Amino acid sequence: RAKELISEIHSEEYVQALMTGSPSILATSQGFSWDKGIWEMAVNSTAGVIAATELALQEGAAGSLSSGLHHARRDSGAGFCTVNGLTATATHAKTLVDGRIVILDFDAHCGGGTHSLVKNDEQILHLDLSTNGFDSYEPIGENCLKIGNYSDDSYLEEVDEMLNRIPSDTGLLIYNAGMDPAPMISGETLQLREQRVAAWAAERQIPTIFVLAGGYTWSMSKEELVELHLNTIEAFTQ
């Protein structure tokens, strides 16, 4: 199913480039060199997000350790994102739920790839809170993008505002849990963010999946980054 969904949301030329490495400009468009494992990686990553979606619809919440999703477009990768697993699983969820499907993106960077793929789909709502203007776009309709140089307090206010935009008829919440707002936003505040998102969805009984997103070791140690990502997992397993 993952292969079918990737082929549905991405162009045939791009999919073939991921499989074969040719043309090189497409095969490496996400920003790193091609090898024969790229396609298998993309399929397995997407399959993990799809499996999390199906489990969340049964159990209420689930997650995937997949990452590198929201910059990928129909015809290419971008920003270290090879295929757009957020859009792939939202597309899959349309066959499983009647209500709205919400993609909530709290990565530091804007999800311009996701926007390009879902902007005209009325069943999918894209809510995007960013601290960096990379991959920005003009949102359409109810879709929302906010970019700001936030303090810890103002960032949490924006988190709450985004959560309040989620419709009551939401059938699935897809949460892109970026940790790259750090160090501008403190680790303690990001932990509170994760707890708020998880509690908000649980209180409303909205099935929710999370995927891991940005986080970089040029501004913190690997151990510190792992601790931030663990906050996401812990928030959704309480």
Describe this structure in words.
The protein is α/β, with parallel strands linked by helices and 238 residues long. Helices cover 44% and strands 14% of the residues. Strands 1-6-5-2-3-4 form a 6-stranded parallel sheet, with helices on both faces. The mean pLDDT is 97.
User: Mean pLDDT across all residues, rounded?
Assistant: 97
Head-to-tail CA distance between termini = 30 Å
Please tell me the CATH architecture by its name.
Answer: 3-Layer(aba) Sandwich
Number of domains: 1
Listing every helix as H and every strand as E from the N terminus to the C terminus, the arrangement reads: HHHHEHEHEEHEHEH
Estimated radius of gyration: 17 Å
How are the strands of the largest sheet arranged? 1-6-5-2-3-4
Using DSSP, what is the number of strands? 6
Largest sheet: 6 strands, parallel
User: CATH homologous superfamily?
Assistant: Histone deacetylase domain
Assign a percent range to the helix content.
40-55%
Derived from helix and strand composition plus strand pairing, the structural class reads alpha/beta
Give start-end ranges of low-pLDDT stretches: none
CATH class: Alpha Beta
Helical segment tally? 9
Report the sheet-strand fraction.
Answer: 5-15%
Overall form: globular
In the CATH hierarchy, the third-tier topology is known as Arginase, Chain A
List the SSEs and their pairings.
Layout: H1 2-9, H2 12-20, H3 24-27, H4 37-59, E1 61-64, H5 85-93, E2 100-105, H6 112-118, E3 124-130, E4 144-147, H7 152-164, E5 170-177, H8 187-203, E6 208-212, H9 222-235
Parallel strand pairs: 1-6, 2-3, 2-5, 3-4, 5-6
Helix pairs in contact: 1-5, 4-5, 7-8, 8-9
